[in-house]
Each structure stands twice: as structure tokens, then as C-alpha cells.
């Protein structure tokens, strides 16, 4: 298929802060496949997010579970789409069916008799901070989520945008952001990290698309500071000074995967995660005709984030690393005794009606971002069957 571009616009809207630590969490296209991009003028100031709107599909938000300053509201659905036909980044890298390498590196695949066979490399010019090369050798479409971390290469990177890579693909360029400021040595290939960066870093990659802001969020923890809150709040559980100390004493560079692998920060994440996980599992254990397909996240009294998927199986695959990312953000944010309500969570999940940007690869995927005021919503649809695979909504803080 030939490259096609069209322009239109329409109205519709801890630093290293902590990903955990390796100990905790261990566990774009070739020129012939260029996506269609629909662009819009630079966004201005828009209205606030709508309140009381209908939720997508048959989604229902249930009562949340809380611990410290984090509240997690389950998103339930009676429709449980089959997503076994997709492969995730962690699954692909672990099995060797997906290869991620520095741009310009020689990528090898194995023939049936075990011999290494170089794949054609069309992206020359050497390694680049914000560009990698990916090959999906599996027979399934590969799902990529913005903020997923790949470890290795010359620097650890995070995926810059939700997208789907077709099965048995040739090498495709992959837009990424560096989360390891300071290292530029190592092998060409990357391995799975089983980490997704916390929301402040993820927002700066997926929405702001700003490398300097990504580094700042890795270094300082959260975009949100106590001084910017409307109500009194205590200091975050893990301060920017603590983060800086870990960077100086325990990590030789601002490596997201290493910064919280030791010390009290990692212990805080582990304890916090285990408690939320226990409460969430108990709250959702008695479901009958519904399945958990996502969550809405609140810090104190502020609903800030949501991740939802086409089906419960896909949600379950991402849930462990998503939960840890939310906990990292909670530890880096100011502490407060306020609690968001169920109505707050429902209102947050209502679709936006602002400016829309669309990118697609015919027959493979469609990516849509809607911006309305301080809110952004990103939806990844699998084609050609028009399946909503992943939807994230953000109250922007950067």
C-alpha cells in the first residue's frame, strides 16, 4: 500500500520516580507501510471535561478501593471481547517472536534449521535516541502501549504511542523516548522489562511528546506538586530529594529500571502495591455477568487517569504493571485525605468532544487522540473489525 497523508480537522476533545525497580517489576513503519495521519491546528484552551455523559459501550464503574492517597475504581463490562488473537510486547520479546533493536543495527532472524538470517535493514544512519526498529515475527498482531519500557540497547526506552504491528512484519521504525539519561553504550537489542512507566512520565511521552519533560518526570517523580493543589496536602511519600539521592548513590545514570530497585523507595512500592492488589481482588471477586476490563484512577480527591481494554484477558495481562505504575505516581504525589467519589469516576470516564487527531494503517489499526481543555483521550482500534482495543483518558498535569 502506498504512503498517504491527508490533513483535516474536526470538532468532537518518581522520577525515575519509581517504576519499579528491576527487582519489583522484573517480571513506525516502513516507507511501504506508512500510516495515514490526520492533523489539526495547535490546540487552544478548551472547555472542561463533560460531566454525566454516557459511558462507552456497556461499561459500568464500580465502587473504588482505597489505600493512602490512591483510589482504584473497577471498570466492568458484560461484553468480553476475545483478544487471544493479539500478542503483547512482553510476550513477544520473551518468546523471541518480537525483536526490538537500535536503528541501523543488523537484525537477525532464525531459519527453520536454526541458521541466523539477516533481515533487510532499511533504516540506516546509526542509533537514534528517539527511534528504534521493531520486527514482529509472530503470526499475531502485536499490541504496543505508550509508556511500555524496553530494556537494553544503548539506553532504556519507552514506547511513544499506542499502535498495532501487523503479523510477520518487515522491520518498522518505532518512535520512543529515552528514560535513561546518561548511558549510551551497550548491545543493539532490547529485552522485556515488564514495566510501564508511571503516569507523569507516560503523559509526557504519549501526549506532550517531549523528551525533556520525560527526563524531568523520571528525575523528579510527578508533574503534580503540593503547591499546585487546591486543598492542603502533606508532602509526597517519596520526595524529589529522595529520588535525587537514589540517583546519586545507587544508579550511575537516570535509569528508570534501576533507580528504585533498592532502598526504602522500592519497599514502599512493594507494600503499597500488595495492599491495593489485595483489596481490588476482594472487591471484584463476586462478579457474575460482568468482567473487569479497566480501571479509573484517583489520587486524593482528583480523578486523574483511566485505562480500559476490549476484554478482561487483555486487561489481566497489563494489570500487574499498570497497578505498579499507578502506585509509583501515588508515592510521588502529595498526600491528602480527600477521596474521589464514584460519581467523580463516572464523570471522568465519559467520552470527550474536542479536537481530534487520527492516525491509521489501513486494515491494521486506527489511533485517535481527542483533546478537550485539560483532558486528553487516546483510543486504539484494531482493524478491520473496528474493535476498540485500548482506551486511556488523562487529566493532563504537565
Please mark out the parts with pLDDT under 50 across 5 or more consecutive residues, or reply none: 1-33, 38-50, 246-253
Indicate the radius of gyration in whole angstroms.
20 Å
Largest sheet: 10 strands, antiparallel
User: What structural category arises from helix and sheet content?
Assistant: alpha+beta
Contiguous helical run count: 9
Residues in β-strands, percent:
25-35%
The best one-word shape is: globular
Instruction: Summarize the amount of helix as a percent range.
Output: 10-25%
What is the number of domains? 1
State the end-to-end CA separation: 38 Å
Q: Could you tell me the number of beta strands?
A: 23
Integer average pLDDT? 79
Give a description of the structure:
The chain has helices spanning 22-25, 89-95, 199-206, 211-220, 240-250, 256-259, 263-283, 312-332, 342-349, and strands spanning 36-38, 60-61, 65-67, 70-77, 87-88, 98-102, 108-110, 116-118, 131-136, 142-144, 148-152, 157-159, 163-165, 172-178, 180-181, 190-196, 254-255, 291-299, 302-309, 355-361, 365-372, 375-382, 387-395. It has one domain (22-108, 120-395). The relative contact order is 0.23. By secondary structure, the protein is of the alpha+beta class. The longest helix is centred in the last third of the chain and has 21 residues, at 263-283. 24% of the residues lie in helices and 29% in strands. Residues 1-33, 38-50 and 246-253 have low confidence and may be disordered. Helix 3 packs antiparallel against helix 4 (211-220) and helix 7 packs across helix 8.
Amino acid at each position: 500500500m502506498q504512503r498517504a497523508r491527508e490533513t483535516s480537522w474536526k470538532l468532537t476533545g518518581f522520577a525515575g520516580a519509581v517504576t519499579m525497580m528491576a527487582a519489583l517489576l522484573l517480571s513506525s513503519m516502513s516507507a511501504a507501510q506508512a500510516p495515514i495521519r490526520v492533523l489539526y491546528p495547535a490546540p487552544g484552551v478548551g472547555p472542561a471535561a463533560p460531566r454525566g455523559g454516557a459511558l462507552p459501550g456497556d461499561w459500568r464503574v464500580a465502587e473504588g478501593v482505597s489505600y493512602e492517597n490512591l483510589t482504584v475504581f473497577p471498570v466492568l463490562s458484560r461484553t468480553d471481547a476475545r483478544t487471544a488473537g493479539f500478542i503483547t510486547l512482553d510476550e513477544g520479546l520473551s518468546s523471541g517472536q518480537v525483536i526490538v533493536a537500535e536503528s541501523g543495527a543488523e537484525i537477525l532472524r532464525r531459519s527453520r534449521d536454526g541458521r541466523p538470517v539477516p533481515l533487510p535493514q532499511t533504516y540506516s544512519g546509526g542509533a537514534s535516541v528517539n527511534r528504534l526498529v521493531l520486527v514482529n515475527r509472530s503470526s499475531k498482531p502485536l499490541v504496543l502501549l505508550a509508556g511500555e519500557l524496553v530494556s537494553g540497547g544503548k539506553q532504556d526506552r519507552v514506547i511513544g504511542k499506542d499502535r498495532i504491528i501487523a503479523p510477520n512484519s518487515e522491520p518498522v521504525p518505532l518512535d520512543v523516548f529515552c528514560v535513561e539519561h546518561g548511558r549510551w553504550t551497550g548491545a543493539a537489542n532490547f529485552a522485556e522489562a515488564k514495566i510501564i512507566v508511571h503516569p507523569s512520565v507516560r503523559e509526557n511521552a504519549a501526549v506532550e511528546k517531549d523528551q525533556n519533560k520525560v527526563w524531568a518526570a523520571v528525575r523528579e517523580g510527578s508533574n503534580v506538586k503540593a503547591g499546585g493543589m487546591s486543598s492542603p496536602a502533606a508532602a509526597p511519600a517519596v520526595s524529589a530529594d529522595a529520588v535525587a539521592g537514589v540517583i546519586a548513590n545507587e544508579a550511575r545514570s537516570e535509569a528508570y529500571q534501576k533507580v528504585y530497585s533498592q532502598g526504602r523507595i522500592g519497599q514502599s512500592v512493594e507494600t503499597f502495591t500488595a495492599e491495593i492488589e489485595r483489596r481490588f481482588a476482594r472487591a471484584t471477586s463476586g462478579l457474575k455477568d460482568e468482567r473487569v476490563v479497566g480501571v479509573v484512577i484517583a489520587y486524593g480527591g482528583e480523578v486523574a487517569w483511566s485505562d480500559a481494554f476490549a476484554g478482561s484477558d487483555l486487561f489481566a495481562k497489563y494489570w500487574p504493571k499498570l497497578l505498579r505504575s499507578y502506585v509509583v505516581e501515588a508515592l510521588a504525589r502529595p498526600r491528602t485525605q480527600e477521596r474521589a467519589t464514584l460519581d467523580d469516576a463516572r464523570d471522568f470516564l465519559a467520552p470527550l468532544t474536542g479536537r481530534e487527531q487520527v492516525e491509521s494503517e489501513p486494515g491494521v489499526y486506527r489511533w485517535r487522540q481527542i483533546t478537550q481543555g485539560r483532558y486528553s483521550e487516546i483510543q486504539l482500534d484494531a482493524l478491520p473489525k473496528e474493535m476498540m482495543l485500548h482506551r486511556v483518558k488523562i487529566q493532563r498535569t504537565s
